[in-house]
Structures are given as C-alpha cells and as structure tokens.
Amino acid sequence: xxxxxxxxxxxxxxxxxxxxxxxxDWYLTDIPRKDMKALMQRKDxxxxxxxxxxxxxxxxxxxxxxxxxxxxxxxxxWLGYGVLYGSAMDSRxxxxxxxxxxxxxxxxxxxYQIASFCMVRNPVTWRWGHARHHTDTVIVGRDPEIVAMRPxxxxxxxxxxxxxxxxxxxxxxxxxxxxxRLDAEEASYIPESEQPKVVxxxxxxxxxxxxxxxxxxATGSILPLMVIGLPRLYGAWHHVxxxxxxxxxxxxxxxxxxxxxxTVYMNPVSRFIYWNMNYHCxxxxxxxxxxHRLPDLHQRIKHDLPAPNPSMWHAYCEVLPxxxxxxxxHDDFLQRDLPHGAAPYRVDLHRTALGMAENVTTAVPxx
Amino acid sequence: MADWIDACAKDDIEEEDLIRFDxxxxxxxIYRSPDDEFFCTDGLCTHENVHLSDxxxxxxxxxxxxxxxxxxxxxxxxxxxxxxxxxGTYPVRLDGDRVLIQV
Lengths: 367, 103
Ligand code: FES
What we know:
By secondary structure, chain A is mainly α. Chain A contains 19 helices and no strands. Chain A is 56% helix and 0% strand. Chain B is mostly beta strands. Chain B has a four-stranded antiparallel sheet, with no helix packed on it. In chain B, 39% of the residues are buried. The mean pLDDT of chain B is 96. The interface between A and B is medium-sized, with 23 and 18 residues.
C-alpha cells in the first residue's frame, strides 16, 4: 500500500517538485489557433443574462421565504434560495476567478467578491489556491483542492453536502485571518505582497457577519441568518454533488487531464447552477474558454477524450463503487479508454496510471 | 547596445494577436495591436514559465493561457492575479513589411 500525504508541506509535496511532476507540461488536444481564438473570445451578454436570472430568482425566493416565515410553507423557497446561494455561487466564484465569465473586468470582480463571500472562501486565498489546482491538478501534496483523497473520507464528504466542514473551516479561517494571521499552508502559495489583502477581506466579512448576527439577536429570530450565512449549509448539496464528479476515483499524479478529469452530461438546471463545469476535462485543458463556450469546445475535442458519462446517475454508478473499493485498496482507481483515433496516453509518463506498475495490478488491501 | 533582430513579417501576426519568437536561447512574444501597432515582451509568463503565445490578446492586454493572469503588453505591467511580476518589454520597429525587435 502506498501511504499518501496530501499536506502541502509534506514529503509528497517535496517529491513532486523534485521529480518534475509539479508545474509540468500537460497534454493538450491540438486545436488550430484560429479555432482556439474564436472559442476564447469573451462576451458580457451570457453572464449578464445569467446574473439577472440568478439574482432575480434569489430575491424572489428569499422574499417569499421571508413573507411566509416562520411557517413550513416557506421551506421550499428557502431550499431554492439556498441552492442558488450555497451552490450556484460556487460556480460563479470559480468562473469569475478565472476572469472568463464577463468581458468587462469589473463585472467579473464584482461577482467574484459576492460569490466568494457566499461560499466563505477568501477571494485572495482561493484565487491562489485554485491557480495551484490548475498547475498541479490532483498531484498529491501540491493540489490544495483534492476532494476525494485515498482512502476517501466518505463521512467528511457526506458532511460537506451540508457544508459542515468546508463552511466552518471558512468561518474559522476568516476569524484567524481577521486577526492578521495566515496559516502555514496558505502562506506557502500566496505571495507575500498579496497577504495583506487576505486580512483586509476577512475583516470586512467579520463586520458583515457581526451586523447580521446582531440583527438576529435584536429581532430574536434566525431569519437574518436564513438569508446570509446559513444557506451556505442548507444549499451546499448541489455543488458537492456535481463537484465530486470532477476528479473522484480517477488517477493521481498524472499530467494528462484525460486521466484525472471527468466530463459528465447534465440536465439544464444543473448546468445553470454549475455553469457548465460538467465539461471539466475541457475546462482543465483550456481554462481560457468561457463557460458559455464549453459545449462548443466539447464538440470540438471530444474525439480525443474518454467518452463522457451520459448522466450524473451514470457517473455516480461509476464513482461510488471505486470510492468504496479505495477504502481498502488505496492504490485503485479508474482507468478510462480513449476513443479510436485519439492521441494515445504517454505510456512513458503514466505507467502507474495506465495499470503497468505492479502496485496497481496486484493492489493489496490497506491495513 | 543590443542588436536589432529581424523577427517576422508583419502579416505573420494577425490583428489583435501575438506569435512566439525564439532567438538565441530566449523566447519572446510579438504582438500586433488592434491599432496595427507592434510590441514585444518576454515570451514566458512571470507566474509559471508558460508561453504567452497560446494566450488571448484583448485590446492591449495579453491573458496567459494557464491561470488567466493578464499583462499590458505595451508596458509589461502585471494587471491581474496570479501574476504580480511585470514582463520585460523590448523596442520594436518596422522595416518595410518586416518586424524588428531589439533584444
Ligand atoms: S502561468 Fe501565467 S498566470 Fe499562471
């Protein structure tokens, strides 16, 4: 059994740098520059339309929820509002963090700040953490965003369907950062020049939460917290449901996104909430392509990628058994075949990921 | 005084685009702006040594293909995280339909 150390300051982190696995050249499907330029073009229209739908829906749902409070009739409206706050804001945080949602920079920044607040992710810290996720996707010890580690912490993942660990960790970090401190892992990937910004944002958030809590205490009701704060918990389930599929059960320590990222076809409602991040392999290969062009990018390169899962249900039927298996066999993972005519995987770089290393074909159960 | 190097033809670069130019073990990016002006910067992003030539030119900004960091390619100024360090820039002049850079 291989013992994995996912900490960003541990032995695997050093090893990944020493062996050149970190910051390596990743495989990219060949696309003519002219086509790529067309796919990368930015627009404001689609994201403005989606922002109007998103914020309009949130105002209406929260408004009805408040009007019906405290009756049970308000519950469905809070559930709808919660998903938009605690899940749709995850994808807005992500896309605006890349700066690809809108053409106009201030619009990206404005939505990025709002979405970061909703998701309790410091916008400075997480911008740098996500950059690392793109440099070293699912490289053990380097990627700070690995959700399903090996062995997978299934209980932890289950808790996060209600934001229990992630949100509380975000609030805890906010309080620590507000005192002027960063933890060692954060400091390892945020340049010193940016660190004061982490503290400034945390202090602003503390003031906002203090105002909401004060209002709740003054009115003797949790209603203010139903609007700000709690939806990060009761609305988190959709972003965990979709996000878990991005990389779970696939190979670690590879430099070809076709081996470690998953594309899943989803229904239109989930795609609105998730902002097309179901085309995840495509996004990782070409993060310059805005969310609204990912379906086109998918059509353009699908001949070179493993077949997408046709539905979330299908993807979970694939993921859950492998996660369960990994509880005992930490080295096990899914290998995915490429379609006929695709550029083959680099065998020289991916012996383990292609099942050619002894520890994979003869995996022994963990103790 | 650095030499002027014949880097490419004007038409090798589309309007509002860039190309990579390697010379003497170094790599550069040469840009053609929407106003048909030409500029030259270092070819690698200052964040993680990624070639900017696969990136996107928008007006006077080059966006890096890896993490979407942005630079003003006229001045080399870093404009958007995760880039914090400016790009080196180099003089450019035109000689007929040729683009010359001084490096
Ligand atoms: S490598 Fe250019 S922004 Fe990261």
